[in-house]
Amino acid sequence: MILRRRRAPGRDAAAGRDTISCVLDIGYALSNRFPDPPQTDYRRADVRALRHDLFCGDVYLADTKSDRELSTAWGWVPVLDFAWALCDIVERLDRDPMGSRASRPQRAELDFTESTDRMLFERRFGWVDIEADWMPAEEAPLSFSHAELRRESRDFLHDLIADLGDLHEDLSENPAIWTLQARFPRVS
Questions:
Q1: Of 86, 115, 131, 152, which is most buried, counting CB atoms within 10 Å of its CB?
Q2: How many angstroms separate the CA atoms of 32 and 27, rounded?
Q3: What is the mean pLDDT of each run of 10 residues along the chain (188 residues)?
């Protein structure tokens, strides 16, 4: 099992203030219960296989400042597809020409194909609220700035591809991966 988690932000003890510049953490764990088929040719795997058949596990989005997390615990979520879909959703939420000044809510959802559960995204002004069908109704959604969500989702995608490439060297030679990385470059 691989777990990707960034180092937790610390406190600047000398100044007595938080040094948190980013409160969003996105991570994953690959499942031992649903391993990739041993005969997989990662160099030639098509988009469908990359998105739906390989790299199963669990994912989470965490607000490190409030110590809250939205995570799956099923073991079968295709983590590359999650990262890919998250980047797509962030771009869909940015289609209003008013950008961060738009008061009209912009919505998107990420559905998990093996269940009826969904992760729901709503952007208003520069903020995105994220909730899921499996959250208790009284629990407030996680909320992040759109710019932070874009940056962190793209970082997560690139870090995930690097991790998967370390596990399966041929993956870095797959043209679909090259296209994905070019479509969603890292942003600062």
A1: 86
A2: 17
A3: 43 41 88 90 96 95 95 94 97 86 90 88 94 94 96 98 96 97 96
Question: Which burial class, exposed, middle or buried, applies to 96 when counting CB atoms under 10 A from its CB (0-12, 13-18, 19+)?
Answer: middle
The per-residue pLDDT for 185 is: 98
CA distances (Å), 73 to each of 28, 56, 160, in order? 11, 11, 19
Please report the pLDDT score of residue 13 as a whole number: 36
Q: What is the pLDDT of residue 12?
A: 37
Sequence-distant (6+) residues with CB within 8 A of 128 are: 90, 93, 121, 122, 143, 144, 145, 146, 149
Residue 103 is predicted with a pLDDT of 81
